[in-house]
What does this fold into?
Amino acid sequence: MNYLIFQAYGNTDILNECRYAVLSLLKHKPTLDTIHIVIYTDQKEFFSSLPTQSITYVALSQEDITRYKGKHGFVHRLKIKIIQDAMSRFSGKLLYSDSDVYFLKPVDSLFDKIDDSRFVMCNNEGAINIKGNRVFEKFSHFIASHKAYLKTNEVVIPTDVTMWNAGIIGIQSTDKDKVADVLRVCDVLLDRFSSHVIEQLAFSHVLQNHGVIEPATDVVFHYWNLKEFRKVLAEFFAFHDQNSSLETMVADVDAIRPDRLIKPKMEYESLSFILKALRKLKGKSNRWVFPTYHIGKNA
It folds into this structure.
């Protein structure tokens, strides 16, 4: 069996993202006899509009969440612990997904990529020693300046290691030792370094050492950099929770496709420093304009 695993707890925005991700998956009519959805959540009732026969819910208590974050309270350490828990419950291929994704195509092809020496992550973000990315530069500097500490703890990471986005992680349930090593590397780094992408580096480093990482971008659009979409999702569900069946919601997911709504923001972000500054001088509203959308056109 193939398992698609989400975590969604606490914030309503995150819960809405997860609901929308599942709806976008259902739009492609997945073969639910071979693909099963698993949602780790503290609010199972929030997902009552989704098909119950196709989803398993794993309860996340506040105690679980606190424990999974570890002594440093690192929120993305939770991702590693959830994958470990899923490995203990389910047998087969596991595809973990962050909540802020939109499925462009059927997900089957991503499971097909997973085997003994192939893993899936969202996308290749480049070597961490490439100039221009301050987060990566800090990581590369830390690795270069803490070689003795890392060697003592058996974490030998090259300063030019490739960073993969961890919004998607595909692995077999039998690879428990690899995920245990990811957790170990993450904790070693956390003891000396602070960054919001430490779990990404841990997954990237360990999985590259054991095989080839395949990208998921042909199937999944990860809109981590479009927090403005949360307001759109709130409007989407405010409308559909009052007026629509599951089928109608699924039919309307493309009315607010994040891969389209993000385009003006990405065009703005690609401008030179000078052109951005000129737009800022004209006021915040001139930086970029959110596209129009029409919720309920298929309702």
User: Anything to note?
Assistant: The domain at 2-222 is CATH 3.90.550.10 (Spore Coat Polysaccharide Biosynthesis Protein SpsA; Chain A). The CA atoms of residues 127 and 161 lie 5 Å apart.
